[in-house]
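Check my protein:
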Amino acid sequence: MLIAATDIEILTRFGRALADPIRCRILLALREAPAYPADLADALDISRTRLSNHLACLRDCGLVVTVPDGRRTRYELADERLGHVLDDLRTAVVAVETDRTCPDADKRACC
């Protein structure tokens, strides 16, 4: 079976985005509904600067997009299917093994 380099790049980009717990929390929050950065920062209890860095990473990875809304900018998942992918991935991992942790869980990577 031949695997295209673009497929590997896409999965690698997605994996890097999910490698950080804050980015996971952002994606899960946006899965529920689009949000403004200030509201996300408050909901996730992180600084706006830190949130901005993570949102930039997620934008660069192609997972979130900005939507102008008057003088404000709202963030949302780049594709509604990403919400389903997050749910499926979470369910699949839990179904496989619930008592395992990733040995590289402390390493942080950005796209």
